[in-house]
Amino acid sequence: MADHKLLPPLAALKAFEAVGRLGGLRPAGRELEIDHAVIGRHIRALEIWVGVPLVMRDGRSYRLTEKGEAYHQQIGEALGAIVSATGKLMRSGELKLRIWCIPGFAALWMADRLNLFMSANPDIDVDFRPADNSPDFRSKEVDCDIRYLRSWEEDALPKSVRRLEFARPVVFPVASPECLLRLPQINRAEDLLRCPLLHEENDLEWLNWFAQQGVTTERQLAGTRLWQAHLTLNAARQGQGITLTNHMLLGDDLKKGRLVVVRPKDADFKPVRFGGYALVAREDRWNIPAFARFRRWIRTEIADAQSGRDVPNHDGAEGIFKSGGIG
Fold first, then answer.
1. How do beta strands 144-150 and 275-282 pair?
2. Predicted TM-score of the model (pTM)
3. If DSSP codes are grouped into helix, strand and coil, which group holds residue 324?
């Protein structure tokens, strides 16, 4: 039986684990949604409890002492086991996986592959829901969410969730061959400002893409707004204008000539990445078996797509996949 006299307060252990993993009081406070000063008090209380220095200041960040490192590894494993056990209990013995996903990625990438996951995991009951907006992670209506997180949107994620970025593709302009014939000659990026541009919900993607090409504009960009990636691509196939996209959404459009990459006559545009596809889940759902298996599956699918895809002659198409985040 455990000696409860040796069991420190759970709040102090959670603070210590977060500081050791994130390297600072402020990021730990943001994740745990408490003031960083409270995190500092928890750390000091834990050090008094165990009688050993665990954390030391290193410039603007914090790092663990040698004994703190060893203790942190054990505490992390113990808290992970608690999270896993709680998740198993909440599932009541059933393997279910409730996934939300941005509609464009759901229609253009997941739709052709989700059956592979279900065939390989027949014991998991999958509920897959395309959704424009992220779910309320405070509820229990979803286990994980698939989002395309642009750099200017990442801070909007709740601090209580974890994420795994599984791809960060290059973004480039495409149009139908018929549309391209009607366009003025493209010699540099600013020439695209005279072309019909297709947008999702706003013009921020195009503005960011132009900025990374060295082109700034103070006016709102004109063009049709279609709100979702699969709708802008469909409009591009119909010759309505130019849209920004990436190879994860194109399928065989380039290979079959339904769309072509728009580029200057004698050069190419600068490769641009301003977002990544990520799996997002609450901490208590991160290690449930169904989600852990789905996480491994999607990373394998990305690796297979990277090694097996035919890359067209487009400089910006190289290295479009980038794994990262917490596994």
1. antiparallel
2. 0.60
3. coil
